[in-house]
Amino acid sequence: MPTPTTLPLSGVRIIEFASFVAGPSAGKALAQMGAEVIRVDPMGGNADVKRWPLSDRTGESLYWNSLNRGKRSVMLDVRSDVGRDLLLGLATAPGTDAGIVIDNAVGRPWFSYEALAARREDVIAVRVQGRADGRPAVDYTVNGAAGVADMTGPAYTDAPTNHVLPGWDFLCGQQVATAVLAALRRRDKTGHGANVEIALADTATAAVADLGWFTEAAERGDRARHGNHLYGSFGVDFATADGDRVMIVALTPRQWASIGIATGTTEVFAALAASLEADFTTDEGRYAHRGVIEAVLTPWFAQHSTVDVHTALSDAGVLWGPYRSASVVAADFEADAGIDPVLVGVDQPGIGDVISSSSPMRFDGEYSGSVPAVALGSDTAVVLGDVLGLDTAELDRLRAAGVIV
Amino acid sequence: MPTPTTLPLSGVRIIEFASFVAGPSAGKALAQMGAEVIRVDPMGGNADVKRWPLSDRTGESLYWNSLNRGKRSVMLDVRSDVGRDLLLGLATAPGTDAGIVIDNAVGRPWFSYEALAARREDVIAVRVQGRADGRPAVDYTVNGAAGVADMTGPAYTDAPTNHVLPGWDFLCGQQVATAVLAALRRRDKTGHGANVEIALADTATAAVADLGWFTEAAERGDRARHGNHLYGSFGVDFATADGDRVMIVALTPRQWASIGIATGTTEVFAALAASLEADFTTDEGRYAHRGVIEAVLTPWFAQHSTVDVHTALSDAGVLWGPYRSASVVAADFEADAGIDPVLVGVDQPGIGDVISSSSPMRFDGEYSGSVPAVALGSDTAVVLGDVLGLDTAELDRLRAAGVIV
Lengths: 405, 405
Known about the structure:
The structure is a homodimer. The first copy, chain A, is of the alpha/beta class. Helices cover 40% and strands 16% of the residues of chain A. In chain A, a hairpin with a 3-residue loop joins strand 10 (343-348) and strand 11 (352-357). The longest helix of chain A has 24 residues, at 167-190.
């Protein structure tokens, strides 16, 4: 990583008391920009400490170790009053760059915004909820309700298709990171703290609304399922002679023309457009006739090797991308780290070599790099000393009382 | 919306010279937190000005009007030197809260970071790219390459399933918003500007790496497609007697127990666990036996009405959510705005009533609310006057030269 003093959030301290994806991904994003992120877990770890995938090598959670890189780790008995007091103390410690909390601890009155603000009036607390009214929800229960699962998947079935990637969690987590920084700026300027809540259900529903899709459905009902076709223009996947697949997209007239050049179909489409009285240079024309466009292009892909397809598409300036399974991404990384420059190899204690990643944000041309996750709770004593000023005797008493290990 | 002075980014001015989803969604998120976001478009609008869906009522883009709410709109002939000079002037105008640019104008040397920094040394420029090496890519061409399309969709086919929602665009956009605020904080503290780049391909690849999925694939190859089942625990959808679907999830022992209570299957699963020598209280046990768990639960859902299913699941504390198509979300909004509190009705000039949304971030308990998008270019003269101090005579000369309308 670059020198810490050059990182944009150097000096900022954030207490993360959260689990699963949204809150921890926010903490990770902030840590990658230089913040000191202290993740606090209950004794034995939070509910995500053994979340899949687990390493075949050692049984450790690849998931937990990925989402918690670059953070300090504190473990406290938060069922005890003393443990809760320590957590509240960490969360509300003095300093212009401290007093910032990320959590998803819905339904814990002792860790409410009011409880935090009673200790530090200008605390910044950003909380991930399931639903805005406090009801629980996770990525997988809000996705279907936002209208997207019904649109996704093969056109030949009516069954909804769930997403595999917890995309709402990631988006919500990034919203948490944004909210932290916006609130911090307001506090820097005005001295006011902030009580921010973000419900995962709202994250999903607002994003779909941002595309105009609910208004569209209110006007004309649900659109027909369109399978792998891009909606409202032309884009779909094709199989090469080797059985690999590529996605090609034409959002502009120039991108459309390049597909004809790459595949030698310019004249075919000119004749077809005349015969259909269609205009393939428009989004409407391409989308309306996506089926025949796909059919005309399919043989060219089927007759050419993957390498030849890639070369021809790139040479003609087609907007395209390959499909890769996760194991192909991993193999590509082993073969040539330049293929996915955001990926970074890390030697993770407890696991071994893992495929980690930088932040996708490159500040001044530099990737953040990556670091291992520390073992659960391994910074407890040091952090309680650094932040709360506890001395050896006090730490020993906490250990004896079972509040820390 | 709350009084502007209470909004966290009040006073911050951002120039957005971008199109499609990532850049404009970043500008929208910042505007919802109180920033003055000035979107600059070329004459006639950018390539996304007529992006689908279009309104059946008026032909206007529901998409464009959704992503550009709450921004000011400037239209300039950026093919002319004078127009480019005006855009560079807006982007690098003085002020501690100005000199911030979001763009995706890859391959325009006249709008490079260097060109901006030559006018204002501490400019903050955050640029969305396709790939980090400058090659073009869009959401739909990076998704397949990140490994996720191969995992998504029905287990009975090997064909990859594209996502419909441009999720990487949204995540990248939120990363842009985060980067803007992190860079602004660094500038406030140190006086340094920032040249930030974020490649959509990196956004996707880094997120999948954050879950540990590439390391998993490196260890044991690609996981089997698991259809609508949640990976590594229990969660899947069921059809009710009315043909509606619900998603239920059990990530914890308590959530698992509640499913048995709601559906009257506690004893069945106890006997089944004994017979299979399985432990359904663990993630491993539930995931390994997800097929039989699904089969045991299916009849209960099929025998109960949607209303009864919802009631029983909620009463027992099951983690669940309904599936809704976009038209059902729209109908729910018409019937009861409290069902999706983030949604907001807006009277959009040029279209009529639309279903818009607040920011999912609630600062101090308040939703941001929403406002209409202004017509393309309608703030041009006012902004050039406000920011660059152009007077009526100068504006008239620009109009006569065709640089503005």
